[in-house]
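Hi R.,

Here's the chain you asked about this morning:
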Amino acid sequence: MFKLFRILAYLFATLFSFALLIAAEAKANPDTKNQELATVNGKTITPADIERALLMRYGPSLNQMPAEQRANAIKQVTPRMAEELISRNLLLGAAKTAKTKSNAKELKRTLEQIKGSLPPTVKFEDYIKKMGHNEKSFEAEVAEELLINFHVQEILSAVKAPTDAELQKHYEENKQSFNSKENITASHILLKIDPGLDEKVKSEKLKAIQKLRAQLITAKGTGFDKLAKEHSDCPSSARGGDLGSFGRGQMVPTFEKAAFTQKVGDVGEIVETKFGYHLIKVTKKTKAGQRKFEDVKEELTRQLDAPKRQKQCKTTLLVSNRKLKLLAVKQ
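And the predicted structure, written out as tokens:
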């Protein structure tokens, strides 16, 4: 659906207090489409706005619900959607105050993307009409979303990346968080054995996997992925048998024991589990222990960067948007 409406999730998290304030101010006003829920920078948010936002989010299928079900759905999400609309209008106000420039080429490209994403049987005009828009108003809505996104990028560009000293300090203070458990990376070839399978067929499967192992031993393990794609009955065959990385307790015991005792690069003995016959090739082993600073630097950067970005966004919005009047949300 219309992804542009989904402003960066953490921006809503920083403004969650607004939703709490709305709930605290809730009054038993008549549930009409013109009831005022909040006013942000002079713009009033009403249940009608909530409904339009829901249509933008969930599409025309909302109108296809039975009347009572639709009314209950709208009532349940109204506080959350009001929060999102407040956040959106705060961001829009901040973008205009900062004189953020729009981009006509990006607007055209985005509109073309939206039109191109529709099923062949759905006309664009009908699609936007069911969301309460004509072509002009829909284009204006998209333009506002782009303006908000551009402004968010401007806000975030002011955030300085953590220094190496900050990263090192965070690492030393949280070393226990960077302890790694023993794990391996492996691939396998599975010849599936269904319960109750005829012994003759089972014997043929065993001979087949013995033949595959002989080929791999002769080739010193090379070509494992090719044989997995051609012969394995596991969905991982599409990835050449790649199972990714896993630790102890994640595989059936027989498979786990064989995999963790194999040497890297070797094709082990045939392993039988409840799933069938396996050939396993271990490609990497990681011992349990302290992960090095260099190995977790990207992770550390993300951990320190996110709070800075949240704080920057929240501070910018609260400084540039003073006119917020919270009224009522029908609970």
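The radius of gyration is 29 Å.

Let me know if you need anything else.
M.
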